[in-house]
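[job 0417] fold request received: DUF6350 family protein
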Amino acid sequence: MKILLRRKKPGMPPMPLWLQGTFELGQAALLSALVVLLPLVGVWFANGFTDREFSSLARLGGQAWLLIHGVPLSLSLPAGELGASPSTGLLSLLPLGLSLIPFFLSWRAGRRLARASYTDQLWQALLGALGTYALLGAAAAYFSSTDGVRISVTAGALLPLIAAGAGLIVGARIEAGSWVRLIGMDLTDWIARTSQHSRWAGSYLWSALRAGVVGIVAALGLSAVLLVVALALNWATIAAVYQRLDAGIIGGAVLTVVELGLMPNFVVWTLGWASGAGFSMGTGSIISPLETTVGPLPAVPVLAALPAGGMEYGYVALLIPVAAGILAGWWFLREGENHFDEWLSIKIRARWFTAPVSTLVLGAIVGLVSGVLAAAAGWLSQGSLGVGRFVGLGPDPLWLGLWVAAEVGVGVVIGYAVGPWLEREPKQVREPALKA
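[job 0417] inference complete; emitting structure tokens
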């Protein structure tokens, strides 16, 4: 869907910014709902649901739409389905891959709103957009609640604003090109008024912060490669699980879409395994290179790639966060300036002492940043299915952050120490001078 741009007739007032924001983010909500609802409609037409009422399908679509926005669903199961007594649980597993749908649709809306607004007027468009999204989320939570699935209207109104608001801000920032044009605040002038020591400290911390981002991105990238290798090695087992399920073309396609939506979660879980922190697949289970204890698992094909049996070479995976730290340390050497090392060298003349200390401090700062980001990723990727023993899925955020911080910090020290040898240019062979 696209807004048709046309010439305004003389005397025709422009669309108010709050109304344009309402239209843009309402459009994003509608498109994301259609993307979620279409697979369910396919299953409905294939007689995949016992309840053939269209209202039931609409409520299920609303519940799925809220789930991809991070809204938890409170489940109430009657007696006989999972036990002799009624059971309750909380479905809170956020499919990060599917959450990118509303994010990118809101990112598109943010670019369009920034293009239509002046610097001091953008808040009007954002206010109308986020207010509309909150109302739609609250309405979806109210009308999608059933006797078996309870949804908080407050959570339905507020939690979807996280993905939508992040997409709006990122899209508007990219379109504006700078924060000055976006919010009217010039950070450059504020930095210029500070002292030289403050600018050096700020530059050092900013470079270390970006190096920490490089470290966690590299760790997640290497974990994604490891996940692809595991899926490729266990592809025959995964195909066998698909055949045993016999879900049909539509059912298999929907199951594959759900698995693809959970792939970013699986990447973070792989990082938890590679770091040594491990991850859980239900109450009382732990999967890590150091220990593996797993109970019965549901018949989900992608789970066939889980490590099983003896892991003689599992400790090699611990090198993945260290390698990411080496890349982060090398990046800092190339792009940043170690002003702390310069300041320490001025205060203490013993270079044999200042060089190791400044490098260790750099490793601690970069490792801490990567650890905090890893803990945040682990918190987003974990969740609960709300039924049976599957109430704890994913890594423990605190342990994941601590392991990644330590291993990336070690890698940063190594990368920053060996970086000068990697950056050394090859010697040029001098040609002998010609005699007169």
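[job 0417] notes: Residues 17-188 form one domain. The CA atoms of residues 192 and 199 lie 8 Å apart.
[job 0417] exit 0
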